[in-house]
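Tutorial sheet, problem 5. The two components below are modelled jointly, 591 residues in total.
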Amino acid sequence: MSYIDWTVLASSLLLIILYGIWTGNHKHTTESYLRGTQPVPWYTIGLSVMATQASAITFISLPGQAFEDGLRFIQVYFGLPIAMVVICATFIPIFQSFKVYTAYEFLEQRFDGNTRTLTAIIFLVQRGLGTGISMYAPSLVLAVLLGINTFYTNIIVGIGVALYTVWGGTKAVSHTHHYQMLAVLLILIFTGFYIVFLLPSEVSFADSLSIAGALGKMNAIDLNFDPTGKYNIWTGLIGGFFLALAYFGTDQSQVSRYITGNSVTESRLGLIFNGLIKIPMQFGILLIGILVYVYYIFYAPPVYFNKVKEKNWLSIHNTINKPYQDYIQMYEARKQSALNYANNTDTHHKSKLIEVNKQYLNSKKAYYSTLPQADDEKDTNYVFLRFVLDNLPIGMIGLLIAMIFSASMSSMSSGLNALAAASLIDVYKKSFVKSASDGHYVFIGRIFTAFWGILCIFFAEMAAKSGSLIEVVNVLGSLFYGTVLGVFLSAFYIKYIRAQAVFYAVCISQCIIFLLYIYTKTPFLWYNLIGAALVIIIASTIQTIFNILSWSKQARMP
Amino acid sequence: MTDEIYMKWLYRVVIGFLIIQLLLYYSLTAYYQ
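Model answer (structure tokens):
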């Protein structure tokens, strides 16, 4: 990266951090620290909700996902708009009417303290792991830029975010989100146009889509109901609906975004905005991944997108290696075939391109099998980052990296803020110090933020060993969200279920979900539905048993 | 009350837009298959 990019990167980050500190430099009360005191307009809530979800993972890993797997990941988001409507119509009015700081406070009012603590603990574990994984993404960027181990960059990023959150509070996070989302979207739109500009002159945008389509990457919708398939319209609409309902409706990091609204209408409009924009935005990012894929058909892709790995590869690389020569030869053949298809999009050229692509993939597989650590899935996460570093104009690279960084900082600081809020309100205030001064709680809130920051650094180290980040973060969420959602759905809609029954149901359901994950190959999106259904069914059954026992006890009484 | 009617219309817009998108993505998939 050039010194201009470094200057742009450093000054952008400095500005964002200073802005966060400046806006948060007021005397905090517990309420203003965790919830904000002034009414927040709907567009700030909407952008904030979107930016909380769109961590660095989205911008780094999503184009890589499309590069590898085509557009089909978009189906994960199909249930989201429906979930937004359900949350607006039922969840928000309930949260607002109860005037709660965290989503779990509501559970105590509806059930009891134990249910609230148990649900908060499940949230803390899940969100702690999730925030740690989110933290790994910017650490990865920093590691690539500085050429140092992610062990050190995890620590740098972790400490930076903890300080930012402690000094800024939710309000500052909310304000910075606003500008970042717009900046990120603008840069991504620019990147999309720029890739088309970089393609050979005879290949238009429409041609690049035709080439990607011929090679199976334009697979946005799969109508086949395959219970073992990870991504099809059914997992997306049903599993995705429950995932979004749980994430936006019960995850404190999201609920705190729209509780800040202080007005039911503003909060609802913010979520409606998210429901309208989310799918087109994710589609646009995936489309950038498709364009990057087409770009690497015409310009030789690196053997490893991860520069550190590439450096190791270069030290053992031998150009007269037969599998390597075959691979390069097939790459050239595919490039020519793609050019022919771009010039003449008929079925003959299409089938020729498909055939040559098969041979290319075989030769690639044969060559990679000769390399050490050949099948490293994580390389997918580096695709977009590498493209940006190698191709975007000077200045723009620094700006995009800064925006990816700041987006992840906001996302992580929301995560940390939510973790601190749940630890403070749902565990500390409830079980340890029930009444103290506001200053005391603000101080303890900051201690919790620092504590979770350190813990997330450890989780980020663990993420280094995982696969595609965008998938990992969704799989992890799905393992816990279903159960938590089940508790909230029982609370909202099934008055029959009481505290003790739901408490046992959560414990049993969470164990069943873990067993299913370990021993079956159930696609992860279904866990959201299964978890919620299990809690409701088991809680209803236990409640019925309790009722029968209590009736029979009463009947036996003289 | 006005807010509620207004929101109900917005919910319809969200679901309608989702259906339009599903049709668009389906056409896109079918076209490039």
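Marking note: Residues 150-198 of chain A form the longest helix (49 residues). Full credit if you identified this.
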